[in-house]
Amino acid sequence: MSLENKVAIVTGAAGGIGFAIARRFVQDGAKVVIADLDDARGAAAEAELGALGEVRYVHCNVAEKLDVRNLVAATLDAFGDIDILVNNAGIVVGADFLDLEEADFDRVLGVNLKGAFLCSQAVARHMVDKVKDGGTPGTIINMSSVNAVFAIANQVPYSISKGGMNQLTKVAALSLAPYGIRVNGIGPGSIMTEMLASVNSDPAAKARVLSRTPMGRVGEPSEIAGVAAFLASDDASYMTGQTLYADGGRLPLNYTVPVPDED
């Protein structure tokens, strides 16, 4: 699954799954642009991964079209090409359906879904021009979630954004297939990122997570990075429009919920 001399952009890559993907890509020979809003963590990620290969950090709010345009320009200035885009940037806002603020809904959809669209469109335009000039088609990878299928009552915009991400993957794949550009998604289950780290110190929370995970453990960011490396490689050359779920068996699981006692 060598990515030797490929150029990749990974959004939201200053930490978590995005950082693990950036690391794997660099280890596989790619030149990587880390896009994020957290400049301190972005600079630290650049320094750490720079010891392994060619890495650049670029400040980018993916929900802002100008930032996305500057991200593409900075990548081309640094490495001269873009072969891989990973739309990983995402945020969550917890609130019950009746209490959710419109601004929070807009903010989550703006980053998680609109941001993926803006980045995909901008990068795809470069990729299409390259193909027309006789170059090699690229690939786009969208970070979805099991919550594109399941719903969480107090994660309204997040669940909606991931459902939309699956459709974005499909429509982009169909639109770009004539150029040989592949678009696929990854749907992680429970992964040991900072957002989930608290379960290690909360036995009840850990039990809830494991009760819905047939493999009996929480996944590691590196395991999602392995899926991304496969999708970015020529080994996935006939795959497009698909979302691969790395969830420890959660989606096939049919389990019960507590039922109140009858009066």
Question: Topology of this protein?
Answer:
Layout: E1 7-11, H1 16-27, E2 31-36, H2 39-50, E3 55-59, H3 65-79, E4 84-87, H4 102-132, E5 139-143, H5 156-176, E6 182-188, H6 203-211, H7 221-232, E7 243-246
Write structural notes for this entry:
The chain has 263 residues and is an alpha/beta fold. It has a single domain, classed as 3-Layer(aba) Sandwich (Rossmann fold). 43% of the residues lie in helices and 14% in strands. It has seven helices and seven strands. A seven-stranded parallel β-sheet has the order 3-2-1-4-5-6-7, sandwiched between helices. Strand 2 (31-36), helix 2 (39-50) and strand 3 form a beta-alpha-beta unit. The longest helix has 31 residues, at 102-132. It is globular. The N and C termini lie far apart (60 Å). It comes from Stappia taiwanensis. This is SDR family oxidoreductase. Belongs to the short-chain dehydrogenases/reductases (SDR) family. Keywords: Oxidoreductase.
Summed up:
The chain has helices at residues 16-27, 39-50, 65-79, 102-132, 156-176, 203-211, 221-232, and strands at residues 7-11, 31-36, 55-59, 84-87, 139-143, 182-188, 243-246. The chain has 263 residues and is of the alpha/beta class. The chain has a single domain, classed as NAD(P)-binding Rossmann-like Domain (Rossmann fold), CATH 3.40.50.
